From TrEMBL:
Protein's UniProt keywords contain Transferase: yes
Pfam families: Methyltransf_25
rRNA-binding is among the record's keywords: no
BP term (GO), one: methylation
Annotated GO MF terms: methyltransferase activity
Entry keyword set: Methyltransferase, Transferase
Methyltransferase domain mapped to chain residues: 71-168
Name of this chain's protein: Putative juvenile hormone acid methyltransferase
Taxonomic placement: Eukaryota, Metazoa, Ecdysozoa, Arthropoda, Chelicerata
Length: 306
């Protein structure tokens, strides 16, 4: 299954920045829709499924496996959870599919119902303690291409730890380079869009844009150790090229732009023009749509029994 990837074995400076839980950030979250997330998640399905297959035998199987519960944090519209994650899991009591967007959860519950899947709201940067009191801890915690949108990834990892039962395992996949990140950085340098710095920076983690494999692997290990977890694997893969048209790229860059939900119709038109001009230059620079050299970080960790 690893024909989609090239595995590296190397790693990063430790970054720990303050997460800003602002009204601006909350407004962006509340306006996310299943349609825009589904476009992105469908593109990632093959990549995540291949990685899951590669690590399939790395998880512990316990005698009371059927009584355990697992969770997928950042399930979005639910397609990957239902189509790929659930079929690859051993028998369990339930699989919680969690997301901060009520719209996503409603869509997922309607589109992908299953007796083993329970769709529940969870903000990984919010009140995780309350969620644990209500739902209990989990023997496995999964998260796919979600942590990359968290600015304070160190705090995010600590909150993931709260979800884990003693001896529980954590598995996450995150993208470290993206056209989104490049666009956001260009917007921060632009006099008009820089006024939305807070909203933009909330979607720019400290490791954004890093391509050095050694630094990425070290960064992942540092995140695990700062959360008092045991690192089982911290690996870096080359993300396979994605074929898409210029118009598709423009739509994607607009669909998950944190500024878009905050502006009026006039500014939305300005943003469309700005993104279109950016994409035109990008399209020429990347030789007719050839993807950038992107890296995926995979982390598998365990919570100590003590």
């Amino acid at each position: 299954k690893l024909h989609f990837f090239h595995l590296h074995s190397t790693l990063p400076p430790r970054f720990c920045e303050r997460w800003r839980s602002s009204k601006c950030n909350q407004r962006v979250r509340n306006t996310m829709t299943p349609k825009c997330s589904r476009v992105r998640s469908e593109r990632y399905e093959t990549a995540n499924a291949a990685i899951l297959d590669a690590f399939n035998n790395a998880f512990e199987i316990c005698d009371d496996q059927a009584q355990q519960q697992f969770i997928d944090v950042g399930c979005g519209p639910g397609n990957f959870t239902f189509k790929h994650l659930l079929p690859r899991l051993p028998p369990c009591r339930r699989l919680v599919a969690a997301d901060y967007s009520e719209n996503m959860l409603k869509f997922a519950a309607k589109k992908y119902p299953h007796p083993k899947i329970e769709y529940l709201p969870l903000d990984i940067m919010g009140d995780v303690d309350r969620f644990v009191r209500e739902q209990g801890q989990f023997q496995r915690v999964y998260s796919f291409f979600m942590l990359q949108w968290v600015r304070d990834q160190s705090q995010g990892m600590k909150n993931f730890r709260k979800l884990m039962a003693p001896g529980g395992e954590f598995f996450t996949v995150l993208l470290t380079t993206s056209y989104f990140y490049d666009l956001f950085e260009v917007m921060l340098e632009h006099p008009h869009w820089a006024k939305y710095r807070e909203a933009i920076e909330n979607f720019l983690p400290a490791i954004t844009g890093a391509r050095d494999v050694r630094s990425l692997r070290k960064y992942a290990r540092d995140l695990v150790e700062m959360a008092d977890l045991i690192p089982l694997a911290c690996e870096v893969f080359a993300y396979p090229p994605v074929k898409r048209t210029k118009d598709e790229l423009i739509r994607n860059l607009l669909s998950f732009n944190p500024v878009y939900p905050l502006i009026n119709d006039e500014e939305k038109e300005e943003l469309r023009k700005f993104v279109t001009e950016y994409t035109e230059k990008l399209w020429a620079d990347t030789q007719e749509g050839k993807d950038m050299d992107r890296k995926v970080v995979v982390v598998h960790a365990q919570k100590p029994f003590d």
